[in-house]
Amino acid sequence: MAVNPVFRRPRRRTAPSAAENGFAAVGLLALFGASFAIPVPGEDVAVRAVASLFTLAAGSVLAMVPALLFRGVLGDWKGCVLWYGRGLIVLALVLASGLVHRGVSEPPSSLLESLRTGQITIDRFIRAERAAAPGMFDQRLLTTHERALRQSFPDGTFSDVSVVRVTDGAGWLRAHMSYQAQLHVQNEPVSTSGQMVIYYHRAGTAVIGAACTAEERDCRRIEPLLAAAEQALRTRFDAADLDGVLPESRDCTVEAIAVPNTEHESRVRACVYAPGIQLTLTRLDREDTTASLIAERAAVR
Question: Confidence class of residue 54 from pLDDT cuts 50, 70 and 90?
Answer without folding.
Answer: confident
